[in-house]
Specification:
Radius of gyration: 24 Å
Helix content: over 70%
Number of helices: 2
Number of strands: 0
Strand content: under 5%
Largest sheet: none
């Protein structure tokens, strides 16, 4: 009886931890896509406009 209680408790903890890790993994991916939607970004400044002007 005691062994089945231990197995049930450990199984519940494992399922709970797997669920939390799944949620946090995909939540972090969504947050990253929301904050930086493109592959890269160039912040605007005077130096940036000069550099872009010389390339074009």
């Amino acid at each position: 009886m005691f062994l089945s209680t231990v197995i049930t408790t450990l199984s519940a903890l494992a399922i709970g931890l797997l669920s939390l890790s799944y949620i946090s993994y995909y939540s972090a991916e969504k947050t990253a896509k929301d904050n930086i939607p493109d592959d890269f970004s160039i912040p605007y400044s005077e130096n940036t406009s000069k550099a872009v002007g010389t390339v074009l």
